[in-house]
Amino acid sequence: MDLYFSPLACSMATRVALYEAGAEANYLEVDPPTKKVLNDGTDFRTVNPIGLVPTLRTDEGVVLTENAAILQYVADRFPQSGLGAAAGIERTRLHQWLCFIGTELHKGLFIPVLDRKAPQETKAYALEKNLSRLDYLDNYLKGRDFLLDHFSVADAYLVTVINWTMATPPIELAKWPNVKAYYERLRQRPSVAKAIAEEFELYKAELARKKAAA
């Protein structure tokens, strides 16, 4: 399968999940400004017209988009990994957390704060409105190792999003000690540590390319 990604973007969650599952994949880096696939110079929009990562092409040639859908596909494709949840209430709780991370944290909180073109008023509004989501998460994680009763694709997504606090000074993890402890604990997990280390190096290379082109 082929995973189209950009370094340290939300696509890193799928990399974590694939590493956790011990699955083989081709990792195809997409340059965010140009939408070019760096491996071969092709236009990524011929694969995903919206131009967003992650995008996954399965071994059967099916193209999947949207982070939550791709993560659930990986969990179902590799059931031995334990990344998913059994049908019933546990599966529903997995969906619940994937939706919460995607809407309340990823899009609601972090995207406005990370957007360099967003007005300061927009960033301030996003912080005022959505920091309470971290309060909720901090309370939930008290005494818990994972979002479910085991490491799942929801944790792969959450640790990816929390990792963005490195680039968002207004969101200081020390204010949410249970979230901070969760993040620090999961960063030691081999699949997470490997993904962050590899994508950080690719991100530094991306910054170097931008500097050279300026």
What is the ordering of alpha helices and beta strands? EHEEEEHHHHHHH
Helix tally equals 8
Runs in which pLDDT lies below 50 for 5 or more consecutive residues are: none
Strand content: 5-15%
- The residue-averaged pLDDT reads 97
Helix fraction by DSSP (H/I, runs of at least 4): 40-55%
CATH class term of the largest domain: Mainly Alpha
How would you characterize the largest beta sheet?
5 strands, mixed
Task: Kindly describe this structure.
- With 214 residues, the chain is α+β, with helices and mostly antiparallel strands.
- The protein has 2 domains: 2-81, Glutaredoxin (3-Layer(aba) Sandwich), CATH 3.40.30.10; 89-191, Glutathione S-transferase Yfyf (Class Pi), Chain A, domain 2, CATH 1.20.1050.
- The protein contains 8 helices and 5 strands.
- The chain has a 5-stranded mixed sheet with strand order 3-2-1-4-5, with helices on one face.
- This is Glutathione S-transferase.
Give structural attributes.
5 strands, five-stranded mixed sheet, Glutaredoxin, Glutathione_S-Trfase, 8 helices, transferase activity, 214 residues, alpha+beta, Glutathione S-transferase Yfyf (Class Pi), Chain A, domain 2
